[in-house]
Amino acid sequence: MENVAITREQPHRKAPMGQRFKAFMADFKRQWALQSMILPGVIFMIVFCFVPIYGLLIAFKNYTVIDTLDTAPWTGLDNFKIILSDKYFWDAVVNTLGISFLKLIIGFVIPIILAIMISEISSNRFKKIVQTVSYLPHFLSWIVLGGMLITWFSTTGLFNQLLLDLGLIAKPQNSLLDPGKYWWIATLSDIWKEAGWGTILYLAIISKIDPTYYEAAKMDGASRLRQIWNITLPNMKLIISLNLILTVSGLLGSNLDQTLVLMNSQNRERAEVINSYVYRMGLAQGDFSYATAVGLGVSIVSVILLVAANKVSSKLNDNQSVL
């Protein structure tokens, strides 16, 4: 039977290009309704993702607003050499990695725990209330949440009043003006905003787990924690791996909106991240070539992190890739 299957596949693989194109067009016509639904997405990606790639030439040129991509003079790798010796860029790298690692260590685990806790709620009414409350911050912009945090952390704000009432501090202080506390503020506020939204995929996976697994484990005397450890978490393994890969690949892409709202002249030394640095150099100071070079370098490193994380994940999942 194996020889027959191989014989049948060979003519398809060796079919002329014209026949394969005709077969593709025939399939396309047969599925035109479905194909037309993805057409807007394809056009969007071409216009906003692929066409702008040509603009990366700016990283290798001395581009100004009076130039075009063709007339701007070539500088080769000069912009990248400047990056390597730029102290402010490396300070931004340190801040980005520090905040991103805190978000990875703390923020990656919390949605998993929260999803399991929500799934364990027996009352559907209370479960919906918890989900709605945890999702809500995601739909608020950082302008709104940032304004709330600035008010809460002020010397007369909510947090200072609570700490004073509890006797934990002797006098009020604005934590957002303290550079040493910014990483924690950025990490915890981002978790507060996104943890509930991050539970959606995990809850979807948990809802698909066969209930008979839990019934059999319960009959064998397994506690609820043992059921979660041996049934729930193994079934969530692939989606956890996928989220971990995407999170690792985005380590250099700290939240720009959050940074622009919470950063000030007092905490800038610990708040400046790569994205805000690129924004400041490119749009605020008009050094488009240098900003593009930084963005290109970060994108290359992010792709390397993505591939490496996928390789490690596939090794841990019995050579099964999730991408």
Please tag this protein with its features.
single chain; about 325 residues; mainly alpha; MetI-like fold; 18 helices; about 70% helix; flat; disordered N terminus
CATH architecture of the largest domain: Orthogonal Bundle
The count of DSSP E runs of length 2 or more, i.e. the number of strands, is 0
Number of helices: 18
Oligomer: single chain
How large is the radius of gyration? 26 Å
CATH homology superfamily of the largest domain: MetI-like
Poorly predicted regions: 1-12
Tell me the domain tally.
2
- Mean of residue pLDDT values: 87
Biggest sheet features: none
For the termini, the CA-CA separation is 32 Å
Residues in helices, as a percent range = over 70%
Task: Reconstruct the topology from this structure.
Blueprint: H1 2-13, H2 17-30, H3 32-50, H4 78-84, H5 87-107, H6 109-119, H7 124-135, H8 142-153, H9 158-166, H10 179-194, H11 199-207, H12 211-219, H13 224-235, H14 237-249, H15 256-262, H16 268-271, H17 274-284, H18 288-316
Helix pairs in contact: 4-18, 5-10, 6-11, 8-15, 14-18, 17-18
Describe the structure.
There is one protein chain. The protein contains 18 helices and no strands. It is mostly helical and 323 residues long. The protein folds into two domains: 59 residues, no CATH class; 232 residues, Orthogonal Bundle (MetI-like fold). It is flat. It starts with a helix and ends in a 7-residue tail after the last helix. The N terminus is likely disordered.
